[in-house]
Specification:
The complex is a heterodimer of chains A (about 350) and B (about 300). Chain A has one helix at about 1-25; strands at about 30-45, 55-60, 60-70, 75-80, 85-95, 105-110, 150-155, 160, 165-175, 190-200, 205-220, 225-240, 240-260, 265-280, 285-295, 300-315, 320-330, 335-345. In chain A, a hairpin with a 2-residue loop joins strand 12 and strand 13. Helix content of chain A is about 5%, strand content about 55%. Chain A is built from 1 helix and 18 strands. Chain B is of the alpha/beta class. Chain B has helices at about 1-20, 35-45, 65-75, 90-95, 140-155, 160-185, 200-205, 225-240, 255-260, 280-290, and strands at about 25-30, 50, 80, 105, 195, 210-215, 245, 265-270. Classes of the chains: A mainly beta (about 350), B alpha/beta (about 300). The interface of A and B includes residues 97, 160, 165, 198 and 235 of A.
Amino acid sequence: MHSNRLHLYAFVIVLCQVVYWPVNAGVVNPDISAIGQVYGTYTNDSLTETHDKFALSLGETEINLDAALNPYFKGAFVLAIEGDGGIEVEEAYASMVRGLPLNLALKAGKYRLNFGKLNQVHPHAYPFLRTPRVLAPDVAKLLPGEESFNDIAVEASTLIPVFGSWAITPSADFLEGRSYHPEESAIAHAWLAHVSNTFSIDPAAFDIGGSFTQGINNVAANTKTTVLGFDAKAKMIGSPVYAMTFGSEYLYKFAEIAEIAGGISHADRYGFYAYINNQLFTRYNVGILYEQYQNPDDNSVIDRSIKPFVGFAVLEESTLLRASYEYFLAGNAQKTSTIEVQLLFSMGPHKAHQF
Amino acid sequence: MKSIFRSSLTAAIVFLLTGSTMSNAAVRIVAALPDLGSIASYIGADNVEVTSIAKANSNPHTVEVFPSYMAKVSQAAIYLKSGLGLDQWSDAIIDGSRNNKIRIIDCSNGVAVLEKPVKVDASMGDVHPFGNPHYWLDPRNGIIIGQNILEALKSVDAVNASLYESNYAKFKTECESKFSAWQTEMTPLEGRKIISYHSSWAYFANAFQLSIIEHIEPFPGIPPTGNHLARLVNLIKKENVAFILQEPYFPDDAPKFLNRQTSIKAFKYAPSCSDANAPSYLNHFDEIISSLSTVAGDK
């Protein structure tokens, strides 16, 4: 009898919590932001439909929703609306940011993977226009994926303070693996590991890291792709109104390719980019980006690109006007020039800037 | 040989996981601003180890989140937030630190907030929805900040509560006596009309009876336009504006233009003290007030 009463009390307590939860959940709205981009492009690249003409286009529109789910979990959604109206869930994940031992954090869902430095960051937050060719899976074809290295995955990471300002952040991701073989319906899992070392020597901050990922590029043939990456970033704060940032990543891809005639061949390629960005009075930036990589169709051909860029926050960071000129050299043969102007506008809360 | 290797490896892992280079006795405090850190150093004295995130002469609204800050916070017992929406970057640092045990103190608790807007949207500029967040620039609010820090210290280190109580009482007395001296020093400027670049100086002006009649920014966080500067030129002449208060992280063009047109002086001060050491917070007021009092002669 006594035990029944205890069960009843317990049931009432649980029921109260169930009723209480949605009442609170409705009160707290997530942070919502919308980011729009308008491009004006002029190129003499004859492979482009609009070559030798000034073309206006609407770039990807991004809708971000994020909020704390409770004191331990956070959730985020990033919806990407293409210029032609197609909507894609670019990211949808929950992360457990506290409550675990050994400084562990967990993340699960679909997200831009923690490979190198820039892949996790959305291109509108780069100091220059567009994703570097080396990191764009549909251009240099060094990273798996389509527009970015993005997959459904589970990640565990930790933060290890060493001494002074030096901290090591290792992370490991278990991937669904579809980014390696987007054309196939069969599933073959993949994995990713990343480690970053961050430290400050006043007035500069540094981040040096390494990444390793491996997955199956052809499930039927069980052929593997492995990508190694090294990244470095440094920021020097010269004065209250001037800062200089240097960033670079080097990628090396080892790929096994199943030949139609049978057998497996190897295609190993490298690529790297490096940029310098100068930030003045928080409203202005000017810099240069250099890229070099082995052509995905012919390893003996080296593609190079040099891209000076400028940016100007019209009033403050919610309205940016940016421009770049790219000189692209495809294996010393095809030379193209592209001038791009971008208006980037964002509404919603101003989030903290991550290093 | 194997066992030496194994024990060295174990020691290295323990070292990495515990960050054993930090001194163990001190209560580790990370402060969003050096001002909050300085007051914590005063009250905690030798029992605390304080670091601050924002630099004195950098804009506290836009601090970039470095992982090294997260490493500091991961080992801290107390995080002192500035609050009122100023240091939203603090949340990213705290989350990134994965510190489950940290006590997060909003130092604005108990402060009489100025310029609390009724309605906020982006057309009004970077207005803080909870009111003006630069409250530490009124020394009387320093005492309230001290009270918040005292409570936090007592809760994490109850053994030394009486020491913290006595240091807080000392800080309060010194702050009150200095405030009275500063008020006397600033008396000749009482009621004078001034212009500030950003709205950082509202609490300072309120404490020392200065009247901020305009800002160089037409809206908070929005750079000045030609029309706005022309209006300021007329206003300075008409209202006999005493001087301009400017933060070091804003460009000099507009104050220099106003100086050329009206001969008005601009005083450039960081809105935060130089570091998180104990005397810093009060010294900062000493420096500003002794420099501003020279204007009295120009009246």
